[in-house]
Amino acid sequence: MPVEMRLLGRTGVRVSNLCLGAMTYGRRTEPKDAYAMVDRAIDRGVNFVDTANAYGRGLSEQVLGEALVRNGKRDRIVVATKFHGAMSDDDPNMQGLSRRHILEACDASLKRLQTDYIDLYQVHRPRSETPIDETLRALDDLIHAGKVRYIGTSTFASWQFVEALWVSEKYCLNRFICEQMPYNLLDRRVERGLIPMAQTYGVATIPWGPLAGGMLTGKYTRGEDPPPGTRFAEERNQVSARFHQGIFDVIDGLQSIADDRGVPLSQFALAWVMAQPGVTSPIIGPRTMEQLDDNLDAAEYTLTEEDCRAVDAVIPPGRMVSPYYEANFGPHPYRL
């Protein structure tokens, strides 16, 4: 089954059921390799790409923008980026969700992306110190100015998202149309509330980390150090949280299911996320062309009811065995 198109929430926009993430561009992925990967993804049916201003403090946006200029296919692509992270070490106002920062950040992202508009502009993280109405008013102004077409969130709790919907309705502002949330076979907590909320209100969901930072690719082995060049070989501070028996018990069970079906674990895990009710388009973050091709091949696997039952026996619905997100970002809004 090739990459398919799905509606982006309640909009009339259709996006591929895989979204190409550009987080590594300009850092772990050289620009020339990134250009080739963007071309390959588009040739195979992907029309949705995601980045953020905080990725390399603009490097990812810059490389992605250059890739789209080179191939001349910007008008065919739904380009998503995000704001929130600190863009300066000495200016405390070059971060967050204030009107001041949002307007400046948007103009800077447009310049780096070499485009006149951002299809989807997303709040990268919630921040309680800034009232959500200030953030929404600034984003609404960007839409009216033609700089942004749709707005969304990333890693919001369901109550935070619903609060934003209420504020948009109260003040007649454009509403968030999607949420990026962490979702994979090591962390299914969003099934408890976030996904049902999204289905209720017609919100698109764009899972990030569908392969749990590479833990679901089969490259890591119980009792052994991370292979050189892999993510966790470079991020040694996370190894103690990532490499424990409970995680590998689940991974071993999932590997057995994938082996029985004759499909790589990475493709099975990604196909599982793609097939879940309420999911629009998981974000893949390949660092190399080989990883990209492997991820795209996941679209060829059709998940069955038997597959789902086998998965549920290994990692039940709503459960979590890996504190991956807390290790990266502190207390997580989905933690119950």
Walk me through this protein's architecture:
This protein has 336 residues and is α/β, with parallel strands linked by helices. It has one domain: TIM Barrel. It has helices at 31-43, 59-71, 99-113, 132-144, 158-171, 194-201, 231-234, 239-242, 245-261, 265-275, 289-297, 305-314, 324-329; strands at 5-7, 14-16, 19-21, 48-50, 78-83, 118-123, 148-154, 176-180, 204-205, 283-284. The strands form two sheets. Strands 9-8-7-6-5-4-3-10 form an eight-stranded parallel β-sheet, covered by helices on one side. The longest helix has 17 residues, at 245-261.
Write the SSE topology:
Blueprint: E1 5-7, E2 14-16, E3 19-21, H1 31-43, E4 48-50, H2 59-71, E5 78-83, H3 99-113, E6 118-123, H4 132-144, E7 148-154, H5 158-171, E8 176-180, H6 194-201, E9 204-205, H7 231-234, H8 239-242, H9 245-261, H10 265-275, E10 283-284, H11 289-297, H12 305-314, H13 324-329
Parallel strand pairs: 3-4, 3-10, 4-5, 5-6, 6-7, 7-8, 8-9
Antiparallel strand pairs: 1-2
Helix pairs in contact: 1-2, 1-11, 2-3, 3-4, 9-12
